[in-house]
Amino acid sequence: MKARIEEFCDIAGYEHIHKGMTSRDLTENIEQLQVLESLQHIQMLTVATLSRLTDLAQQYAALPLTGRTHNVPAQITTMGKRFANIAEEMILAFTTLEQISETYPMRGLKGPVGTQQDLLGLLGDQTRSKNSNKASPNILDLTTPCEALDRSIHDL
To answer: Mind listing the pLDDT tens digit for each residue in 88-126?
Structure first.
């Protein structure tokens, strides 16, 4: 990446492309976006699976089978109840997936060491630096809330 930037700057006759940020500002945000979108895809698959388990629980609600405890026959239950139990566990897991998805922190534009100091120097004031950092999720088309984007070295 650095070689391509240097090549571009040589052709352009000046170097403005790399000021205030590193290539990781882009790649880390893209990687986080991929993780978030994967998590959301898993949520959709979980909903589809829960729908199927609901159908199976209703379909087999009256089919008796022997329940077991410690691999020893115990009470009579139904196949529908088994499917319902699996669905119940999946709902708990889905709730956790939702919470992670809703609070997943995006890195934002932090610069080489994560302080935004270079970006502050380039933009001239702290408000503009913070605003550019808040805009990065919008540029990536993210709607995930992220309080961490508002924090920089200037807040410490």
So the answer is: 999 999 999 999 988 888 777 777 777 777 777 777 776
Q: What is the 3-state secondary structure (H, E, C) of 17-40?
A: CCCCCCHHHHHHHHHHHHHHHHHH
What is the rounded CA–CA span in Å between residue 30 and residue 64? 51
Domains, the chain, ordered by start: 2-155 (1.20.200.10)
Q: DSSP for 65-108, please give it.
A: EEEEETTEEEEEEEHHHHHHHHHHHHHHHHHHHHHHHHHPPP--
* Cα 88 from Cα 54, distance rounded (Å): 10
Against a cut of 0.70, is the pTM above it?
A: no
